Amino acid sequence: MTHHVSLLIDGKWTEGSAGQTLDVVNPATEEICATVAKAETADLENAARAAARSFPNWSNTSPYDRSRIMRRAADLLRDRRDHIARLLTTENGKPISQARVEVDSAADMLDWFAEEGRRSYGRVIAGRTPGVHQYKVSEPIGPVAAFTPWNFPISQVVKKLAAALAAGCTLVIKAAEETPASAAELVRACIDAGMPDGVINLVFGVPSEISEYLIPHPSIRKVSFTGSTAVGKQLASLAGLHMKRTTMELGGHAPAIVFSDSDIEQAAKHIAAAKYRNAGQVCIAPTRLMVQKPAYDDFMSSFLKEVDAIKVGNGLDETVTMGPLIHERRLQAVEALVQDATRKGGEIRAGGKRMGNAGYFLEPTVISGTAVDAEAMNTEVFGPVALIGTFADADEAIVEANRLPYGLASYVYTRSADTISRMSSAIESGIVAFNHTAVALPETPFGGIKDSGHGSEGGVEGLEAYLNTKFVTQLASA
Fold first, then answer.
1. CB within 8 A of 41, min separation 6: which ones?
2. Which of 232-256 are b and which e, b meaning 16 or more Cβ less than 10 Å from the residue's Cβ?
3. CA-to-CA distance for 124 and 136, rounded, in angstroms?
4. Distance (Å, whole) CA 82 – CA 103
5. Are 407 and 448 in contact (CB under 8 A)?
6. Strand blocks (E) in 83-229
7. Assigned CATH class of 254-441
């Protein structure tokens, strides 16, 4: 299956000013499955101008009418789910069942923000002296530059798109060149639902060139980025030079802490499913698994059974539960982390090797006893590798959980209310989940602290990220 993906600028699908394209590779076969148009400077300028030109009209469109278009787009996504999911799996590699869930969740995100945008209320603040009326007003911040990654090519776009549209903002979206078709289909659903020209613009190209042009652009008033911590720091620095508001959802290295009083089999099942989803290419994937010593053997046995049941292969096969890594560079990076971990005393309990002669497949891998100075214990792995160690008590678990500069997601399994109370406040993380791993919903805030970024996507907080606060005060005429 081959296809071509165009740019969308000011309501028109276009091949770009230079007519150049980039190849898209199917990670399960290493074959070229698509081409995507490459934006040049002139295209970026046209996209930014379109976003600026359409902003006054869209921001003044009633929240009711914005909601109506967004909900229609959500319905179109659901109608086209199977087609979009196949495109997503072909480009990204994840199992088709996970791709369908991603499309459905994107529709849910559009629906939720469509309704929440109708409830973006201000408030009246009592004056201190007679005749003084004062109130707070929320206004859309302006055109947005949104940068999104390949691991969730629909979900990561829609988190920014839905909140921005609901707030009354327009966008230039730089989606991932590795996975352009599914992002384009999300945007197409919005256009087909009646979105006015210029409100959404979609570009692909050389990431550094696009960010360096769009972030300083005088029309852009907000920057939202999801990706690695290293790149996020660069973009945040550039945005800071131009006083642009930012939301940064960056890397993680999530601990999963299993106390001996927990349901061990259930913990193993939950953590394995979260760890190997999308071949571990998930910023909130549990990676440092810490098991209280009395429960270690039982947990390891249960966890290895879950890993053994994983079927690796082409995600278009309905029976496959884990697909390939996204490209050769990611595969090599994860292999290097595994090799370093074993050199420093780690024992491979499962996997650890590349699979097959085609595609970027790595066996689901489990390593025990990894030294704390191993690279994998300090760098985001972003692959199907679980590192399992032990701890004696809560104090030791807290120290390890907080050791790294990351602070995106953390997971704790225990039946103790006292432990839940203590860990919920002691762990330095934007998200702490107890006894399950479902942490990303349209109505809940999603975001990290420390080197994992700042700001939230999802929930009321996700909408507020695209709004300016204006204080209005008036002394009534005598």
1. 209, 213
2. bebbbebbeeeebbbbbbbbbbbbb
3. 6
4. 9
5. yes
6. 123-125, 132-140, 144-147, 171-174, 200-203, 222-226
7. alpha beta
Known catalytic residues are: 249, 283
Pairing state between β 32-37 and 431-434: unpaired
Q: pLDDT tens-digit profile of 320-345? A: 999 999 999 999 999 999 999 999 99
Beta strands in 131-284 (DSSP E): 132-140, 144-147, 171-174, 200-203, 222-226, 245-249, 254-258
Residue whose structure tokens are 């940064």? 248
Place of tokens 């109708």: 118
Angle at 150 between CA 148 and CA 151, to 5 degrees: 110
Q: Assess if CATH 3.40.50.1100 describes domain 3-250+452-472.
A: no
Q: Report how far Cα 356 is from the mean position of its chain's Cα atoms.
A: 29
pLDDT for 477: 77
Sole residue written with tokens 């201000």: 122
Q: Which of 165, 171, 169 is nearest to 147 (CA)?
A: 171
pLDDT at 478: 54
Phi then psi for residue 242, to 5 deg, are: -110, 15
Six-digit token string for 70: 């967004």
Phi-psi region of 140 (alpha: psi -120 to 50; beta: other; left: phi over 0): beta
Q: Which tokens go with 38?
A: 């490459």
Q: Copy the structure tokens of residue 55.
A: 């902003």
| Residues comprising the chain, all counted | 478
Q: How far, in Å, CA of 246 to CA of 468, rounded?
A: 13
pTM for this model (two decimals): 0.96
CB 176 within 8 A of CB 36: no
Rounded CA separation 223/240 (Å): 10
Domain 254-441 in the same topology as domain 3-250+452-472: no
The Cβ-side half-sphere exposure at 155, using a 13 Å CA radius, reads 21
d(CA 278, CA 351): 16
Answer whether 194's CB lies under 8 Å from 67's CB: no
- Round to whole Å and give the CA distance between 465 and 454: 11
Domain spans of the chain, in order of start = 3-250+452-472, 254-441
pLDDT in tens, 291-315: 999 999 999 999 999 999 999 999 9
Task: Report phi then psi at 76, rounded to 5.
Answer: -65, -40
How far apart, in whole angstroms, are the C-alpha atoms of residue 246 and residue 257? 32
